[in-house]
């Protein structure tokens, strides 16, 4: 039994809590109500309403002022104005939960912590209910008599300073316990959270405190929101034409307030410096979809209006141009735009935001472009254009004259930490709108899965989009909380890849994959083993995040099954041969063929488009040794970094692909070596072939080392060739059954004859395939042309038929 206690009697915070309880506790509020009702009835009875108002003011005003005093001194989160003891630094929210300031046990302290608004928030975002969490805490305390509330408070004070807080609040105390006490750490692990996750939850709790904080009704923000601003017409003329095709961003930007979470702050400062310049003050904001270009513009508008209000300057109107309406809803867009801009130029200072400037430049015609060029650098009209990287390269950079007129500001993708903060703030708004709860672990899953499977989109936009859709999905399913299964379903839809949680049937499919591959791939045990091991790591997400699921180089003579292995894998694991993207590297043998991989100004390439549309795929690079060295270097980047940036700056993600390169490198060496060494074992053959490839400079050691596995295919034995013949004949039998409904039967003597005739250690299965075409397919075609074979009939192929 823990007997150690804490005494807060006489501390400033305890005195403040006592005063608050005396003057604003339930009994006091009841007394105020009784007095107020009695006074109102008396004055009403005697018909003295004016005296009633005076009396009400005399009664309420001192109470109101005294409450402000208590709030300012004790109840806020500001740093105390006195030299504080540990107890004085306790937050008011915790102290007011305590029944008595003397002899506070560790249990009393932690009960008070969890019952505060911030404590409950932290516990819920850990994925636990406060009541059950308290029961778990009580069990820990029973086993931990050494816990001293005074020592906990002292340690929490140090934690408070590290967390950058002014008071010892629920977050500081809980963080201290979870970090230092084994029993509490176990609670954290049970919730599948790390100490870093807990820090993130504490940050979220701070955002929540800001979100629910209400400004007083007499504050500048509240008054501005209620009554709006005045004086626009005193400093600006009328701009009816411009108003017709624009939205005024600056009209209400101040009362909407500034986000507590702001990213791209350095870029915002740079943008403001550009807008203040006397020349070259037109701005082009460049960034991929989702990086936060529009949000940055809103923050710029807020900063401009706030600065002008503080410095008593004439307001700048910041207008968002409706590009589509201008181009399609006006008879002569160029004439209309020219007239509107001329009038605006004489009516004050304007900043025009053109979110669809790419549409205006590509569809507006030369006259519209000429008008834009005319007003760039004008004193009273400034432009902020927004476009993605590819649009910039295609429409602006290709035109040096146009490119010269704009100052460029490139917006990079937000970090994971910044994205998490954006999600935290966005959650508060969406929870009120959609009425579905989101836990920290759900946000953590969004950031993790969006990074892995939506790499062609950008943070924070892609994460916010997943959050909104997952919340709507949860609501439509009647669920109160967003779970990882909701998130995975949305990611699967957006990424065109199945990332649903691994079911038992999925596990069984992967476990049986080696058995399936062995049935269809003859004699290449090393290849099957390497592929299956890679796929097992992939489905459990144990592979390196920044690389493809698996990368393999298949080396060996012709006809041993290298390409066949890739086809079988595409069918059995990826679901269809259509999920294999095959590139014949003979087509990339010249230096100019590099554009076939990185694209050109006109757009992306076949490979990039296929991977963007079908991110979960198998890529087969057939005969990689035929590719030009510069093309090979591009694939080195893909193998190493898991992505490729094309000519226009567009990044294509290859991390959800398996890449197989095949090569006949050393084919002549293989032919001669096998003739001279018929009975050689596989290991010796592999060593000699690898040595030959490196000596001849066909591939560099660096190239070979970029692959997860270099698999050497050996020549087929006679027994293996017979199995290959059976598989090929099975394909013909199955095709005849499926397409024509004819039962084709092949006698064993035929199989042995084909295997004997078609066996070639030098050309492998290629020779076997030719033999089957000559002896089976051609003769079968002749037979069916000469005989009326109907659906359901049997056709038997005997050895004598082939003589």
Describe this structure in words.
This protein has 803 residues and is an alpha/beta fold. The chain has five domains: 201 residues, no CATH class; 181 residues, Rossmann fold (3-Layer(aba) Sandwich), CATH 3.40.50; 85 residues, Helicase, Ruva Protein, domain 3; 207 residues, P-loop containing nucleotide triphosphate hydrolases (Rossmann fold, 3-Layer(aba) Sandwich), CATH 3.40.50; 85 residues, Orthogonal Bundle (Helicase, Ruva Protein, domain 3), CATH 1.10.8. It is built from 40 helices and 17 strands. Strands 3-5-6-7-4-8 form a six-stranded mixed β-sheet. Helix 20 crosses helix 21. It is globular and about 125 Å long.
Question: How is the main sheet built?
Answer: 6 strands, mixed
Oligomerization: single chain
| Fraction of helical residues | 55-70%
Major β-sheet strand ordering: 3-5-6-7-4-8
User: What is the CATH homologous superfamily assignment of the largest domain?
Assistant: P-loop containing nucleotide triphosphate hydrolases
Report the CATH C-level class of the largest domain.
Alpha Beta
Beta-strand fraction estimate:
5-15%
Number of strands: 17
CATH architecture of the largest domain: 3-Layer(aba) Sandwich
CATH topology descriptor of the largest domain: Rossmann fold
**What integer is the average pLDDT?**
81
Distance between the termini: 97 Å
Rg, Cα atoms, Å:
37 Å
Low-confidence stretches: 223-237
Spatial shape: globular
